[in-house]
Amino acid sequence: MNASAASSHDSIRAVLWQGDHLRLLDQRRLPAEETYVDCRSAAEVATAIHDLTVRGAPAIGIAAAWGVVLAAQNEPERLDAALAQLRSARPTAVNLMWALDRMKRVGADAAALAREAQAIQDEDLAANRRMGELGAALLGDGVGVLTHCNTGSLATAGYGTALGVIRAGFAAGCIARVYAGETRPWLQGARLTIWELLRDGIPATLIADSAAAHLMRSGAVQWVVVGADRIAANGDTANKIGTYQLAITARHHGVKFMVVAPSSTVDMATASGSDIEIELRTPDELLGYAGQRTVVAGAQAWNPVFDVTPAALIDAIVTERGVVERPDAARMAELFRRAR
Ligand code: MRU
């Protein structure tokens, strides 16, 4: 597929460096409002990451890199403290730690740090385009695809990971229908993925997360295509809560399961999924919606926001370096010899 076909369905950018501040499309307010938050310090970037103003594994790594640039520009004496503060903003997506390690290796020069942050952002976009080609080539013709969470331009430098494969597959004419799970409780699928796909002219159908098994049994989807927050050395994959049950359901119905993530999401220093820290967020995300309490006072809730899909349930991991089919530790090591 040529570049213009790929870019014709890719108009959104969520992380915008402005020279002296970082502008973020506020993902808490979409799709009702398209507003931006301007961050002028590393602390403001860390808060934006923690509060999900910016979200999605690659996007939070990119935002954090620009946060380091802001620290170097405005408070160079606090550079180490800024790195630590950004690192602790969220625990699961390894792209955050990967980007900060890269920035730390550059040193303290603000101009050199800005070049590195721009390189991280540019490389992510290029990786997404490459993964789009590689993943779309696996799909087959006239397929239905189910995706989860938001893995698109909003979650990356642009184009997206799983949504990049969907963009490329749609442009190549091999996708008949895209389904997006609503992704309770934060509704990344309902609020963000549907908005992003419709904005870029890709028709998509929303389903309740709980409709996935019924959808798969109907024969309407041949692939589940998702992103990742951290892929362990054996191929176990942490992604948005609900991904694991989609993988189990897919295997039961003979539906293929594809994980799409750049090599910055692959953590060869983590042996298996059981070593990945799973972020727990406030129970308030479950007990109410948009500031409105929906569950009786006094109720308790447990809110893990990621889960781990065992490698054995994954048919293909697509990275910009290549595709690992039926991933395991040996096949992952073949593609990712260099440990983090
Ligand atoms: O909590 P979020 O919205 O940051 O979670 C995002 C996901 O789980 C995505 O699937 C993952 O980061 C890949 S984004 C290209």
3D architecture notes:
It is a single chain. With 340 residues, this protein is of the alpha/beta class. It has 2 domains: 3-124, Up-down Bundle (Four Helix Bundle (Hemerythrin (Met), subunit A)), CATH 1.20.120; 133-336, Rossmann fold (3-Layer(aba) Sandwich), CATH 3.40.50. Helices cover 40% and strands 18% of the residues. The chain contains 12 helices and 16 strands. The strands form 4 sheets. It has a 7-stranded mixed β-sheet with strand order 6-5-4-7-10-15-16, sandwiched between helices. A 4-stranded mixed β-sheet has the order 11-8-9-14, covered by helices on one side. The longest helix has 30 residues, at 110-139. Bound molecules: 5-S-methyl-1-O-phosphono-5-thio-D-ribulose (MRU). 5-S-methyl-1-O-phosphono-5-thio-D-ribulose binds at residues 55-58, 93, 149, 151, 155-156, 161, 188, 227-229, 239-240, 305.
The CATH class label of the largest domain is: Alpha Beta
Which radius of gyration do the C-alpha atoms yield? 19 Å
The H/E string reads HEEEHHHHHEHEHEHEEEHEEHEEEEEH
CATH topology of the largest domain: Rossmann fold
Taken as a percent bin, the fraction of beta residues is: 15-25%
Please state how the strands of the largest beta sheet are arranged side by side: 6-5-4-7-10-15-16
* Quaternary structure: single chain
Secondary structure category: alpha/beta
The average pLDDT score comes to 96
The coarse overall form would be globular
The major sheet is characterized as: 7 strands, mixed
| Known CATH architecture of the largest domain | 3-Layer(aba) Sandwich
**Total helical elements:** 12
Give the beta-strand count.
16
Weakly predicted, low-confidence segments: 1-6
Bound molecules: 5-S-methyl-1-O-phosphono-5-thio-D-ribulose
Query: How far apart are the termini?
Result: 32 Å
